[in-house]
Specification:
30% helix, 450 residues, 16% strand, four-stranded antiparallel β-sheet, seven-stranded parallel β-sheet, alpha/beta
Length: 450
């Protein structure tokens, strides 16, 4: 058969067949191209919500610190605030989600500039935020909210044209099946076969996520978790096989080595341009991912820190996933909303330099205050400190007679001249663009530079 008909047949059969099927090994799975939407999106919001939102103290690892490590401060907290003999399961009915309005959440995330949102469907406590068929009476439909939180938020996000990601922990701290498998040295797989994998398949088939954010992988190898078999099904036969994105937390030596994009570690900062697509997950509350009723303002990221993290992350080719922890009632605290909305206002002006951008040949000036992105022939210089003399010195771009310089959010061209050594000097407007009180970084558009 001639080459032409073969190419036509491959196209007609679809991308999975045209590219061949993925086999359940890392060599094959790691070769899958990352769906393009993820790199273009750049900005996401992470949501940590579960039974840990009821005690709302310490962190989302409350149960482990209390009953696993038996830390004195956690034992004292429970003793002082709850009746004697209180168990962690007693918190579940108090996880009410009474004030959860998914469309309001979606609107907030949209105004924050998020192109995707990742919700905890199940954290290490094992409680599922949907009616998992293998988590009887330890899910949000049977107890607590008596609502399908995963489904409700997913519908609202898709109405707002926001991609939907599902966080899922492979392990569960105190599940007897998991503890028995662990005791066997992970030679048995009862927990995987009866709990974790049925839930992953159920999530994909029921909610058709755009992203699966795996976690809880660190204690066991991929041969225990059956990770490669699941991913081969996900890429070959699932209803989201052509669009779904996954991270790298699928086994105890997978992070930064295997999977889709890399997280590597919480709040990962590579410091240089990685060769592989990556994501930085960060949290407005610097001490916790889940909501804490005892947080203080000096323990939270301010607006400038959030924007600086975003700019540095995107300059190095990463996505930025910023976390909030709602209350047990389903309220996102006003101070978290304020931070998200400040990010959104900045992106309203400067998003051209962020969304769908690519790293430039230079990511940061030696000064450490100017960061670069690019989009085709256009280069963006994002500076976080306004120069005192209103002259922005850029050493890395090489200007030409055709060079044009403008500032995002400011009408008209900016004057520039060649620098005495290399690069160019850009004359900025006499004062930073208004409103002064909310401007936390500026972007200059450079056309006709090398």
């Amino acid at each position: 058969m001639a080459a032409g008909p073969l190419l036509w047949l491959a196209a007609a059969l679809g991308p999975a067949v045209a590219a061949g099927r993925y086999s359940p090994d890392w060599g094959s799975l790691d070769a899958r191209p990352l769906p393009a939407w993820f790199d273009r999106a750049k900005v996401g919001v992470f949501v940590h919500w579960g039974v840990f939102s009821v005690p709302a103290w310490g962190s989302e690892w409350f149960w482990w610190h209390w009953r696993g490590e038996r830390r004195a401060d956690y034992e004292r907290f429970v003793r002082q605030r709850y009746p004697p003999a209180t168990a962690y399961a007693d918190f579940a009915p108090r996880f009410t989600a009474h004030d959860f309005q998914p469309r309001r959440w979606a609107r907030l995330f949209q105004r924050a500039g998020a192109r995707y949102v990742v919700l905890t469907t199940k954290h290490h406590e094992g409680f599922t935020n949907w009616g998992s068929p293998v988590s009887w009476n330890w899910n949000s439909v049977d107890t607590g909210p008596h609502r399908d939180l995963v489904g409700e938020l997913g519908q609202a996000l898709r109405e707002s044209n926001i991609r939907y990601g599902l966080y899922h922990s492979l392990l569960e701290w105190f599940n007897p099946l998991y503890l028995a498998d662990k005791e066997s040295g992970f030679k048995t797989q009862n927990f995987v076969l009866k709990k974790t994998m049925p839930e992953l398949y159920d999530l994909v088939l029921k909610y058709k996520p755009d992203l699966i954010w795996s976690d809880g992988d660190w204690e066991a190898p991929d041969s225990y978790w059956n990770s490669t078999s699941f991913l081969a099904w996900l890429y070959n036969d699932s209803p989201v096989k052509d669009t779904v994105v996954v991270n790298d937390r699928w086994c105890n030596n997978c992070s930064c080595h295997h999977g889709g994009y890399y997280n590597c570690a919480d709040k990962y900062k590579p410091g240089t341009l990685p060769a592989h697509k990556w994501e930085m997950c960060s949290s407005i509350d610097k001490l916790s991912w889940g909501y804490r009723s005892n947080m203080h303002v000096d323990e939270l990221m301010d607006e400038a820190s959030i924007i600086e993290e975003l700019v540095k992350t995107v300059s190095f080719g990463g996505n930025y996933l910023l976390n909030v922890g709602p209350t047990k009632e389903g309220v996102i605290a006003p101070i978290f909303q304020d931070r998200l909305l400040a990010l959104g206002r900045w992106l309203d002006t400067n998003g051209e330099a962020i969304y769908e951008s690519k790293p430039w040949r230079v990511q940061v000036e030696d000064t450490g205050t100017v960061w670069y992105t690019s989009k085709g022939p256009v280069v963006y210089a994002i500076f976080l400190v306004w120069p005192q003399d209103n002259v922005l010195q850029l050493s890395s771009p090489t200007p030409s007679p055709a060079t044009q310089v403008s500032m995002l959010g400011f009408a008209g061209a900016l004057q520039w001249q060649k620098a005495p050594g290399k690069g160019l000097l850009v004359t900025l407007p006499p004062v930073p663009p208004s409103p002064l009180s909310t401007q936390l970084g500026w972007a200059v558009r450079l056309q006709g530079v090398q």
